[in-house]
Design brief:
Blueprint (H helix, E strand, L loop, with lengths): L7 E5 L4 H12 L3 E6 L2 H13 L4 E5 L5 H15 L4 E4 L14 H20 L2 H7 L2 E6 L12 H21 L4 E8 L5 H9 L9 H9 L10 H12 L10 E4 L7
Parallel strand pairs: 1-2, 1-4, 2-3, 4-5, 5-6, 6-7
The structure holds nicotinamide-adenine-dinucleotide (NAD).
The site of nicotinamide-adenine-dinucleotide has 30 residues, from helix 1, helix 4 and helix 7.
Enzyme class: oxidoreductase
Keywords: Oxidoreductase
GO molecular function: glucose 1-dehydrogenase [NAD(P)+] activity
């Protein structure tokens, strides 16, 4: 039972933060979940959380920026569950700098994971979804892909690319009944947000991040930062049959921040 009863889902970056919350929510709504992460311990631990709660999950260690790993993670999922209905390309990293000072290394690293990795996540799922004429792909973008936020230049470029890629994929695979949507989260406190503040010089490594969270909340019309569950609720909706006529959509989940 549940809103994803009988479905098979794959979530990348599912070992932490928004991916973890979404994997848990998908499983609670009846989906069997491939819990993909670069960090094997994190993938194992979220898998255990799901199975302990009575759900079905498979831990998969993969780097989404590798074509070979992306191919293998889909193969392992199909070998275990026979089919795949939902792909949430969520894995991502922060990145620092502006156009005049970021490095080529930083640009390449962020683009490889946050842009190429989102493409590769669905590359090997698409033929299967097209053949079955069903599928929901959700790409994790960011409010940083919609508005100019200082200090995260390569990240901004990658997330803007994810938004454009989502629309192109939606148009291409709509006739195959494969839906492709993107989510643009605002600030949701996770290890990524804390690392980003330190890397941008907005916080020292020993700063009390809760104080910065409270300051940041003032910039959001709803006057609070998001929770991983706020994000998981939208991912769940887009994954489910309730969104059967929705594709090419760019969904802000940001407390109104990008409406400024
Ligand atoms: P997080 O750091 O808590 O979790 C990210 C997970 O992805 C980690 O478990 C990490 O091991 C994994 N990962 C990193 N590189 C990987 C790779 N190459 N292959 C596979 N897994 C990899 O971060 P989060 O805040 O949950 O972010 C998840 C996604 O949401 C990212 O794409 C991020 O850009 C996006 N996002 C987050 C926020 C926010 O405020 N937290 C806002 C907008 C967008």
């Amino acid at each position: 039972t549940g809103r994803l009863a009988g479905k098979i889902a794959l979530v990348t970056g599912a070992g932490s933060g928004l991916g973890r919350a979404s994997a848990l929510r998908f499983a609670a709504e009846g989906a069997a979940v491939a819990v993909v992460d670069l960090d094997p311990t994190a993938a194992e631990s979220v898998t255990t959380e799901i199975t302990t709660a009575g759900g079905h999950a498979l831990p998969v260690t993969a780097n989404v920026s590798s074509d070979a790993d992306s191919r293998r993670m889909i193969a392992e999922t199909l070998a275990e569950f026979d089919r795949l209905d939902i792909v949430f390309a969520n894995a991502g990293i922060n990145g620092a700098g502006n156009a005049a000072d970021t490095t080529e290394y930083e640009w390449d690293r962020v683009i490889a994971i946050n842009l190429k990795g989102v493409w590769l996540t669905s590359k090997y799922a698409l033929p299967h979804m097209i053949e079955r004429r069903t599928g929901s792909i959700i790409n994790q973008a960011s409010m940083g892909g919609l508005i100019g936020l200082p200090g995260i230049f390569p990240y901004t470029a990658a997330k803007g690319g994810v938004i454009a890629m989502t629309k192109q994929m939606a148009v291409t695979y709509g006739p195959d009944n494969v839906r492709v949507n993107a989510i643009c989260p605002g600030t949701i406190p996770t290890p990524l947000v804390y690392r980003s503040r330190v890397d941008r010089g907005a916080a020292a490594p020993n700063t009390d991040q809760a104080v910065l969270d409270a300051d940041a909340a003032a910039r959001f019309p709803l006057r609070r930062l998001g929770s991983p569950d706020d994000l998981a609720a939208t991912a769940l909706f887009l994954a489910s049959d309730e969104a059967n006529w929705i594709t090419g959509g760019i969904y802000t989940v940001d407390g109104g921040r990008s409406a400024f």
